[in-house]
Amino acid sequence: MNKIYFSLILLLTISSGFAQTNQELQKMADADQEERFNGTDWRIRNKHDSIRLAKATRLFNNGALKTAKDYYNAGIIFQHGNDTIASKMAVESFKTAIAMDSTLNRWWYAAAVDRDLMRREEPQIYGTQYIGDGSGKQKQYKMDTTKVTDQERTYYSVPTLAQQKENERIMNLKKVFFYYTETNSIDKTTDLVKIEFKKGKESEYYIAESDLNNFGYHLMSQNKLEESLKVLKLNTELYPKAANTWDSYGEILLKLGKEKEGIEAYKKSLALDPNNENARNILAEHK
Predict the structure, then answer these.
(1) Nearest 5°: phi and psi at 80?
(2) Which domain holds residue 183?
(3) Could you tell me if 224 and 241 lie in one domain?
(4) Are 156 and 192 in the same domain?
(5) For residue 132, what are the β-bridge partners?
(6) How many CA atoms lie within 13 A of 33 on its CB side?
């Protein structure tokens, strides 16, 4: 870091100790993330992004950014602009925010750098950006793996190169839920899961403990309790050392009035994870 930049950051850091987070920026950054997590229609979201970008740029140019969180929030907004001017401002904002407060989520800086490079049609360097390959699958945007070490990737909460490769494989696996909707048969679906589980990394389906658990809860929410039972029971068989599988299995058993079996499942969950307060509370209620 050059002396001039370091002095600027030092000055900003000292002054930020006496400044309050800009509430307008905070609200805009919160809205940005809420719309993305809630799946807001992209046309509406794009319109709102443009409005937020204009306001954030005005605040930035007027010197209204004082704290690390101000720069962090501005970075989130700039990140979702549509040109290299916005993407460059995102990089600089996150860089400043992290220099002022390294406890902030550093992943945003790496993602901003990669997105800025992608918009300039240059290879990314951290490995945060993915694009569609035209067949419905996602692939990593072109990358120069020589610019950044895995140690630096880890510092910025980005997976190592080996983990990125594995993540891309997992990302493109088929979903068990879709097989179920196609066949409308829980028995065929559980048989498929058993077969695919044996294949390990050669599996064509994503059959992680968490995904099967979510599938079981989806069935539960649809009041398909017997089908949910089959999925959650299978999950305990495939992942017998996962406390959460037994916790979920216990829940569906209780819903079906199978109290004795449900209590046993919760006991197993608590034995595997003594910090499982949910299991502890359920067992206390059924003494």
Answers:
(1) -100, 20
(2) 173-285
(3) yes
(4) no
(5) 138
(6) 11
Burial class (CB in 10 A: 0-12, 13-18, 19+), 58: exposed
In this prediction, residue 158 has a pLDDT band, given cuts at 50, 70 and 90, of very high
Burial class (CB within 10 angstroms; exposed 0-12, middle 13-18, buried 19+) of 6: exposed
Tell me what percent of the residues of the chain surpass a pLDDT of 90. 87
Shared-domain flag, residues 157 and 233: no
Cα 257 to Cα 253: distance, rounded to the nearest angstrom: 6
User: Do 80 and 49 meet the contact criterion of CB atoms below 8 Å apart?
Assistant: yes
**What's the sign of the alpha-carbon dihedral 124, 126, 132, 138?**
positive
Arithmetic mean of pLDDT, 229-233: 97
113 domain-assigned? no
Residue 115 lies in a domain: no
Under 8 Å between Cβ of 53 and 81: yes
Instruction: Report, in this order, helix, strand and coil percent for the chain, each rounded to 5.
Output: 70, 5, 30
